[in-house]
Amino acid sequence: xxxxxxNGYGTIGKRVAAAVDTQPDMCIVGVSKRTPDHEAAxxxxxxxxxxxxxxxxxxxFSAHDLPVAGTTETLIAESDVIVDATPAGVGAANAPKYxxxxxPVVFQGGEDATVAPASFxxxxxxxxxxxxxxxxxVSCNTTGLARLLSPLDEQFGVKSVDCTLIRRGGDPTQxxxxxxxxxxxxxxxxxxxxxxxxxxxxxxxxxxxxxxxVPATLMHLHSLTVRLENAPSREAIxxxxxxxxxxxxxxxxxxxxxxxxxxxxxxxxCRQRGDVWENCVWSESISVDGRSLSLLQAVHQQADxxxxxxxxxxxxxxDADAETSRQMTNDALGVGLDSPLA
Amino acid sequence: xxxxxxNGYGTIGKRVAAAVDTQPDMCIVGVSKRTPDHEAAxxxxxxxxxxxxxxxxxxxFSAHDLPVAGTTETLIAESDVIVDATPAGVGAANAPKYxxxxxPVVFQGGEDATVAPASFxxxxxxxxxxxxxxxxxVSCNTTGLARLLSPLDEQFGVKSVDCTLIRRGGDPTQxxxxxxxxxxxxxxxxxxxxxxxxxxxxxxxxxxxxxxxVPATLMHLHSLTVRLENAPSREAIxxxxxxxxxxxxxxxxxxxxxxxxxxxxxxxxCRQRGDVWENCVWSESISVDGRSLSLLQAVHQQADxxxxxxxxxxxxxxDADAETSRQMTNDALGVGLDSPLA
Lengths: 342, 342
Known about the structure:
Two copies of one chain form a homodimer.
Chain A: E1 2-7, H1 11-21, E2 26-32, H2 38-46, E3 50-52, H3 55-63, E4 70-71, H4 72-78, E5 81-84, H5 90-101, E6 105-107, E7 119-120, H6 122-125, E8 134-137, H7 140-156, E9 158-168, E10 184-185, H8 193-198, E11 207-214, E12 220-228, H9 234-242, E13 247-250, H10 259-268, E14 279-282, E15 287-289, E16 292-299, H11 306-317, H12 322-333
Parallel strand pairs in A: 1-2, 1-5, 2-3, 3-4, 5-6, 6-8, 7-8, 9-11, 13-14
Antiparallel strand pairs in A: 9-12, 10-11, 12-16, 14-16, 15-16
Helix pairs in contact in A: 1-11, 11-12
């Protein structure tokens, strides 16, 4: 069993903890959190051991009748792997603690790529993390792009990619973010940072990205045109994507008209928090003109990196190869449930 | 003087009427409207003669103390040119009335291209409307694309265009439209109808368009990549666009961060209704990589076709050439005011 500690129990941390808890070869040592809030109470109710950064944190938790098992330092020492899901930038500040405890660590995409010797997408470059002391799971948008482009590149050869990212303004609970009734170039400079982030896992890809932020909280949506080495049929593209368990073909013809429909569908499947781990590619949008492929896909910003974090743990701490790990993760979580189109 | 009648006094009709009223070579015969609402009252207050479709309409206006000068049929007979700004589809139903009165007519982009022998963008194909009995001003999005691509094609040669249109859900008063907190492929099929509409004014252009609708009402935003015959400098692109009075270079560095800033800026310039007639291209977004140009532009869906309607009237009813007409329209309206970047 790989003993996993979760440092940071917010949007990503709580999801990764739940996902790790389903894996047959992993267990949760505990989770570390700064604030004794409703998320902490839910973690304790669920049975996760709670760790606090220091004595002051311990007192704050105790004041709310939330038992604390020890300090974050203890959690790091007792874990085979730490998943650092602290806010962007805090991970880099934590890095020396992991190094001095000699505990391998998975960082998140909010950190600079320099935080770890490798960046990670399980479908694109699993092996580059094997044997490392740490890795960084790339951001939700980059994960969505890498998962789509890796199989396309293998089967048809990707010459270049042009992607406009229609970005959600914030997560549902981030009430202090915008925009309201506006469309915002974000960033206004082109290409956006997503292009260079994608090259941390797919270094050879010729990619242009542009970002625009809109008043929505549920998912990001990517509008892509991909130039290929070969001229595939539309059916060949559909078959290629359909064979990927972390890519779901969805259809307006089945009532999956928008991001909200995709999230509703995940709730209807009894997924906790309505999480969508898979890229959702609209079947009707797949358009092939010679060597040019266009399509629209949605990416759930809170969830798509969750299976990647699980695989990153295995890449750091187990012998499983990439395909074995992905399959274990998918089977335990229930990734890639059949859609009406399957 | 070209005597102009406006049939349909809603979002577009009222703006075109005001714009025609500023032109030195045009006058408004009157406006025709179906419903005696606040927009009708404002038209009468402004001094426009009101026409009603029939006796029933006349009675409805009279019941609100709004004087009626005659029927729509009379307006058509007394006008040198009619601008049909009725709802999409109604223009086509009206077409026989204009034909039997032998009154030239400008239709809007909501009609099918078959409604008239030509489609129209003043910068792209003015001459194709000259000598015709009617024309169709293409939609707001198509106008925004054609205005941008025509000068680029002349100077650098446009090989192909890939555009994602991030579409506003509705105009500010269209409270019955959505989406709320969602991102919607619209249409879900690729390419969107904008590609074929663009070819009605630029038949040779190789264009891919994808549409996505978002919860915003102020403007559309276009994310473009254009492949050129030549490899221009970024400065050459800026100079090319800067020389177009209906294209405005805007800058996040000047506080023009979003669509809302652009509309606020138009209000601050004392433009009625905060109208933005120009394409707004974000200067910082202009990115050139060899023969590939990427940029972000915003288009005000209620306003950008207004100067085009004025030019279309001249193309149907006067001897002015395209450049003379555009300059008259621009000067009278005040199109292309200097921005802080100019």
